[in-house]
Amino acid sequence: MEVLGIDIGGSGIKGAPVNVKTGEFTQDRLRIVTPQPAKPDPVAEVVAQIVEHFAWKGPVGVTFPGVVVGGVVRTAVNLHDSWEGVDAAKLFGGATVLNDADAAGTAEMTFGKGRGERGTVLMLTFGTGIGSALFVDGTLVPNTELGHLQLHGKDAEHRASDRAREEHELSWEKWAERVEEYLKHVEMLFSPSLIIIGGGVSKKADKFLPHVHLETPVIPAGLENQAGIVGAAQAAAQT
């Protein structure tokens, strides 16, 4: 079964048809820069462009960088405040809409490094912000939003996201110190058996993970930055 997955991020909106039985793209991914300001209507226009690009008529799954409950957006810290209360499922033409990290985590638990893992597994995506997906014996605890935990009086993602690394012009080693501090805080709260690092930085794990030291195993995601698209497609296939 093929389903179109679309992943909305702070810097780019990406989509591709996915074989939901294998987790593989069936066509090349399309990426369009996220409009700024990222208000609902301009973002919806980009989503529609991606649907049109693939001439898609079947089910569509869309990830969103914030809390989503029943297709309705509750928070949108890294996009625009005007998203709060928006029925995103309706706005996107009846698509299935879910939190972006939850989608990425679900894909990683199905097709990636989390496959077959029991206990408490935490997927963290580092990009414009920090997304989180928490699993207990393979079951998702949705909308955890652990990037907004407080460190030094501010959201952790303001110190340890990939955007923070770029804005503060941090070396990979200096950024790894911030990531380690954040991960140790999360480790203390949840005592996970495994932490999986996703998002765009997962492709560059060799630059920073050797400098991160925890008691919990920390590994890069197998699906890298494709996980959100795959997870979005999975969610739409199940509804």
List the helices and strands and how they pair.
Elements: E1 2-8, E2 12-19, E3 24-25, E4 30-33, H1 40-53, E5 60-64, E6 68-69, E7 72-73, H2 88-91, E8 96-99, H3 100-111, E9 120-126, E10 130-136, E11 139-141, E12 150-151, E13 154-155, H4 157-160, H5 162-167, H6 172-190, E14 194-198, H7 205-208, E15 218-220, H8 227-237
Parallel strand pairs: 1-5, 5-8, 9-14, 14-15
Antiparallel strand pairs: 1-2, 2-3, 2-4, 6-7, 9-10, 10-11, 12-13
Description:
The chain is built from 8 helices and 15 strands. With 239 residues, the chain is α/β, with parallel strands linked by helices. Helix 3 (100-111) crosses helix 8. Helices cover 31% and strands 26% of the residues. The chain has helices at 40-53, 88-91, 100-111, 157-160, 162-167, 172-190, 205-208, 227-237; strands at residues 2-8, 12-19, 24-25, 30-33, 60-64, 68-69, 72-73, 96-99, 120-126, 130-136, 139-141, 150-151, 154-155, 194-198, 218-220. The strands form 4 sheets. Strands 1, 2, 3, 4, 5 and 8 form a 6-stranded mixed sheet that branches. It has a 5-stranded mixed sheet with strand order 11-10-9-14-15, covered by helices on one side. A two-stranded antiparallel ribbon has the order 6-7. Strand 9 and strand 10 (130-136) form a beta hairpin.
Describe the structure in brief.
The chain is of the alpha/beta class and 239 residues long. The protein has 8 helices and 15 strands.
